[in-house]
Task: structure prediction
Amino acid sequence: MSIKYDFTGKVALITGSSSGIGAGIAELFAKSGANVVVTGRNADRVAKVAKQCTDLSPKQLTALEVVGDVNREVDCNCLIDTTVQTYGKIDILVNNVGIDHFADPNSADYYQLFLSVMQTNLNSVVYLTHKCVPYLAKTRGNVINISSNASKVTINGYSPHCMSKAAVDMFTKCMAAELGPKHHIRVNSVNTDRLSSKQYWPGQPEDIAQTVAFLASDTAAGFLTGSIVVADGGHLAANVSL
Result:
């Protein structure tokens, strides 16, 4: 049974929310009364999830649609500016967007694949968090980074992905330590697994969304910051291959 959260009056910005885990997070925030910002690179997908969020909203609040690529600073700036212009604030930032590529260290394109993965999985998280600090400080808001069990184990062929997620987890801890005392901003990370796995507990986007909502709730998790929360259906504990 899902726990019900109340985010009435809160503004939640979720990157990569036009599908998958990001869409599940956006929908749960909408269902919980928040003003939701849906963003991604595909306008049709963004519009579809935004409509679902609006339909799920108890007060039929219209979800904000912003099409853009988090790999572009100009798009990130537009995303933040549009959110603030529309709602006047940001309470919750969920850095969800992420990619992985098979990358053989002996392949000619290994370094380019490394740069691509790091740009999406790490650099965009750092940049968006940095740019949102002034707004999150005003609301005493919080940041949730969607990471991976790949931050803790090696996966042959996916070293850039593993490195990027390990860096995201350390970034989470660093920001919690720096932004908490100075700005009363909480920062946490959720480590998950590929949700398509059929072993142990096969997960759904809503499972991760529930963990994110818990961390975003000042009532439920107001004393949690700098935490790396594993939500993977037991795969890491059972040493199941990612």
Notes: Residues 110-139 form the longest helix (30 residues). The longest strand covers residues 142-148. The beta strands are 11-14, 35-40, 64-67, 92-95, 142-148, 186-192, 228-230.
